[in-house]
Design goal:
The complex is a heterodimer. Chain A is an all-alpha fold. Helices cover 73% and strands 1% of the residues of chain A. In chain A, strand 1 and strand 2 form a beta hairpin. Chain B has three domains: 185 residues, 3-Layer(aba) Sandwich (D-Maltodextrin-Binding Protein, domain 2), CATH 3.40.190.10; 130 residues, Dipeptide-binding Protein, Domain 1 (Dipeptide-binding Protein, domain 1); 224 residues, Dipeptide-binding Protein, domain 3 (Roll). Chain B contains 18 helices and 24 strands. Chain B is globular and about 85 Å long. The chains are: A mainly alpha, B alpha+beta. At the A-B interface, helix 2 of A face strand 1, helix 4 and helix 15 of B.
């Protein structure tokens, strides 16, 4: 377990280097160049070509690309992600701190619910495999999977927020100062319900299908038949013995669920006007805000790495110390 | 007043709000931005928002006696970046600052569009040589926050300090500086008097300075230019206007409350106690938010949906509907530095091929006017009797034939001297249906007469750089003007080719002469005549093809009362909220 942890930690550095290098190259290769938005009269400062060139020079964008990247890397290692010109020169690190709490809270609850709902649904499908009701359930899950989160959100809004008797709030609102205790929890839950429902519904199918696939295979194994022959209750066979083996694919899925949630939150947070990391990713790309784009890429890379780490550790634990490759 | 190009379509949304609300201010930009709101949210340049009584269909509820109190809520698409009055950039920020926190020296009367003093005690006096303007500040106006000794008055020292910051090259105030090119000096004379000197006589100085000069509190703001760029006052502004800053929840909302120091009586009573700007990125949700009582007013960008809302009993009960023209329009610039477009016959032919009436009817559902020249239908100089060129493929073919562009090889496409008649029409990637659909129809019609028009969406920032560098064939953008004199010098004078917005490279000595005469003419009647002549000249030469002046469509909650339509639209400084 310790060796696995060390190995994964050693992989972190090259992973993040690769992510940032690729993002850096893409951002520099994009048409317009760094700070191009400053030349617009719409959201920029209406800089002339000469002023834009000077602004780029002042921020080192005229230096060779490798020097720019190394400089950024050195600063990022110290926690300095530069400033966001698209946001009045505020430090990117400060902007990230401002938004991270909301997104982590929403995504943690969403991830938990995805597993709490997806595994039982998958188990039910496995037990019912081949029946008409299972096929209907599969079709429904497939439809959910085919719908982007933003479409699901739009449906939920139309269903739960519009018209008489639809009291759910349309937009996010953080808990006002002074509201504490249960009232605080109720306020948060009321405003978080739709975004979390969106994230859960959009991701549920993956977990349910993985769970079904793993359990269907496991339930066909001879040792499961042996357990049944020994008279173990079906519930115990399924939830205790089969699930322990069949859940392994779900653990693998965890590694991709984290980054998926981050990217999924881009649409959901934008739809519900939630000031989180997802909407920050969207805004920074929209504004060609290079320092923010780089910081966001680094963050998504780190989250992805963390997902892999958790997945590997769980794998090892479930296999009783056997290490993942 | 500043005017500017914008990505086609981006702006129409918000402006409406603003204008409705404020009318004289202009906003702009992002749809969202313009928070409708309030008071004169004037959005920036748009002060133009001229409101056309003929074009408006509003249902105004019984007003009754005004009642103070309540909270007005409007939406914005994106969060604000800074409310530092000198560093602010977007139209929404401009509207907020100008209307509520830092009212300008002069305002526009929403009915007469005459300049009226606001922070200034009177309109400025002009020296005999017409280069020096003397301004008097209204005494007794105090900053929302004073210093250790108590309240602090807005004085000429603040003006001088603000000018110093605006003019300093290290201060990121390029946009603020751009309006004051002719100004050489701003100098405090006494506590309430200051002078503004220009290089040469410039009739718009009063308007430009009166409307666009930006004040910051000298007693609180950083005096070091570098520190000024990151002054915390940008996130917690201290102004002197009718509303003062209360709270800013990043990404969620901004809230303001009435400034008790601001005189409630008179032309600007401001009965509403608080106003909030809610960040709501999805404009499609705005009408629903209004119907639920979470917004007080909002613009609607979808013209077809607007008609549906008007027929919906729920919305007819929840809102009043307002339709009016703002001074913003769509147009195509032809690059006359390219041989193809140097020939006016080609420009005329392509104008004949653009199906503007079809777009007006099918995309705008009739909520637009097809233009004959690059200006708003609300401008006094705009001549509605001058009919826009109609769609006429046969006339276009004849003009192209006459220009030497013929199908010589029988492939259905025209060529001349071995060069095919082909060009690229670029437009901002994020745009409105009128642009994308209109361009598709134009492409089809052009192909039928042997013209290969390639349509290319481009990121707006990149497109603007290409336009400035004259690196394009044709480009479609939108423009926001101001409601009074629209000075076309920067867009069509020869000198503006190298440094200005004359991206198409139009150069005509007669037009140059008229543009210069317009700028130097202080008599309004004579200036109007010159303005009309300029429009006629542009309608004839077609350096650009003006497309449409769309209407702004605004929903206002029926809880708001006294929602009046002025010539410049509705301003909410005299609206009130029914309990």
């Amino acid at each position: 377990m310790t060796r696995l942890l060390l190995r994964r930690l050693l992989l972190l550095l090259p992973t993040l280097l690769g992510v940032t290098l690729l993002t850096f190259a893409l951002s520099r290769a994009a048409p317009g160049g760094p700070l191009a938005f400053l030349a617009t009269s719409e959201t920029g400062r209406g800089l002339t070509a000469a002023e834009l060139a000077e602004a780029r020079r002042a921020r080192g964008f005229d230096r060779p690309l490798h020097q720019q990247y190394i400089t950024w890397l050195g600063a990022a290692a110290r926690g300095d992600f530069g400033v966001s010109e698209a946001r009045g020169g505020r430090p990117v690190a400060e902007l990230l701190r401002e938004r991270v709490g909301t997104t982590v809270a929403l995504q943690s609850i969403a991830a938990l619910l995805i597993y709490l709902l997806g595994v039982p649904i998958g188990a039910w499908c496995a037990v019912q495999a081949g029946t008409r009701s299972e096929r209907w359930a599969g079709a429904l899950l497939f439809c959910l999977h085919a719908l982007p989160a933003v479409v699901i959100g739009t449906f939920l809004i139309a269903w739960l927020c519009v018209g008489a008797g639809a009291p759910l709030p349309l937009l996010w609102k953080s808990v006002p100062t002074g509201v504490t205790g249960l009232a605080r929890l109720a306020h948060w839950a009321e405003h978080a319900f739709l975004p979390i429902a969106c994230l859960v519904l959009a991701s549920l199918t993956g977990v349910a299908r993985y769970a079904r696939a793993g359990l269907v295979e496991t339930l066909r194994q001879p040792w499961i038949r042996a357990l049944r022959a020994r008279g173990l209750p079906e519930r115990r066979v399924l939830w205790v013995h089969a699930l322990r083996t069949g859940i392994l694919p779900l653990v693998t899925l965890l590694s991709s669920l984290f980054p998926w949630l981050v990217t999924g939150s881009v649409a959901v947070e934008t739809l519900f006007s939630i000031p989180g990391l997802g909407s920050f990713v969207f805004e920074s790309v929209r504004d060609r805000d290079d320092p923010a784009v780089m910081a966001n890429a680094l963050m998504v890379g780190a989250v992805t790495w963390f997902g892999f780490l958790v997945s590997d550790l769980l794998h090892a634990w479930l296999r009783g110390g056997e290490q993942a490759p | 007043m500043s005017r500017r190009a914008r990505p086609a379509g981006a702006g129409f949304v918000g402006v409406g709000l603003a204008s409705l609300s404020c009318l004289s201010c202009g906003d702009d930009s992002d749809p969202a931005a313009r928070a409708p709101l309030a008071a004169p949210l004037a959005l920036s340049e748009v002060r133009s928002q001229a409101f056309s009584p003929a074009g408006q269909a509003s249902l105004v509820r019984d007003a009754g006696p005004a009642q103070a109190g309540g909270t007005l809520v409007q939406a914005a698409v994106r969060d604000y970046v800074t409310l530092n009055n000198i560093l602010r950039v977007s139209a929404n920020e401009e509207a907020l600052c100008r209307m509520f926190l830092f009212p300008p020296l002069l305002d526009l009367d929403p009915d007469t569009i005459e300049l009226v003093p606001l922070l200034a005690a009177a309109r400025p006096a002009l020296s005999a040589d017409r280069r020096t303007w003397t301004w008097q500040l209204r005494p007794g106006v105090r900053w929302h926050r004073g210093d250790a000794d108590g309240a602090v008055e807005v004085t000429a020292a603040d003006v001088e300090f603000s000018w110093r910051m605006m003019a300093h090259p290290a201060v990121k105030a390029e946009k603020a500086r751009s309006a004051f090119g002719p100004v050489t000096e701003v100098k405090a004379v006494d506590r309430h008097t200051f002078t503004v000197t220009t290089k040469e006589p410039f009739f718009r100085l009063e308007l430009e300075f009166g409307f666009n000069f930006r004040l910051m509190p000298a007693h609180l703001a950083e005096h070091d230019p570098e520190k000024f760029n990151v002054d915390p006052l940008g996130r917690a502004p201290v102004g002197y206007g009718p509303y003062r800053f209360k709270e800013w929840k990043p990404g969620e909302h901004l809230e303001f409350e009435r400034n008790p120091d601001w005189p409630r009586a008179g032309r600007l009573p401001y009965p509403i106690e608080r106003f909030r700007i809610r960040i709501a990125a999805d404009t499609a949700l705005w009408p629903q938010l209004l119907e639920r009582g979470e917004l007080s007013l909002c613009t609607v960008n979808d013209y077809v949906r607007w008609e549906e809302l008007k027929a919906d009993p729920v919305y007819r009960e929840a809102a009043t509907f307002h339709e009016y023209f703002l001074p913003q329009w769509l147009y195509i610039t032809w690059n006359q530095q390219r041989p193809l477009f140097a020939d006016a016959r080609v420009r005329r032919a392509l104008t004949h091929l653009y199906p503007r009436e079809r777009v007006k009817e099918k995309v705008y559902a009739g909520h637009a006017v097809v233009l004959n020249a690059p200006g708003s239908v609300n401008y006094a100089a705009y001549d509605p009797a001058l009919a826009p060129l109609p769609f006429d493929a046969a006339a276009a073919a004849r003009l192209l034939d006459a220009a030497g562009w013929r199908d010589l090889d029988g492939d259905g496409m025209r060529e001349r001297d071995g060069v095919a008649l082909r060009f690229v029409l670029r437009h901002p990637a994020a745009t409105v249906p009128a642009v994308s659909q209109g361009n598709r129809w134009f492409q089809e019609e052009a192909r039928k007469v042997g013209v290969d028009a390639v349509i290319e969406p481009v990121d707006f920032a990149q497109l603007q750089q290409q336009a400035i560098a004259h690196d394009f064939d044709a480009v479609l953008m939108s423009w926001v003007g101001d409601p009074r004199d629209d000075d076309l010098y920067d867009r069509f004078h020869t000198s503006a080719i190298a440094e200005g917005s004359n991206w198409g490279g139009y150069s005509d000595p007669a037009c140059d002469q008229m543009l210069e005469a317009f700028r130097g003419e202080f008599d309004e009647a004579r200036r109007l005549e010159i303005g009309r002549a300029i429009y006629r000249k542009l309608a004839e030469d077609l350096p650009v093809t003006a497309l449409y002046n769309p209407q702004a469509l605004v929903l206002v909650s029926t809880k708001l009362r006294n929602v009046k339509a002025h010539r410049l639209g509705a301003r909410w400084y005299d609206w009130w909220i029914a309990p």
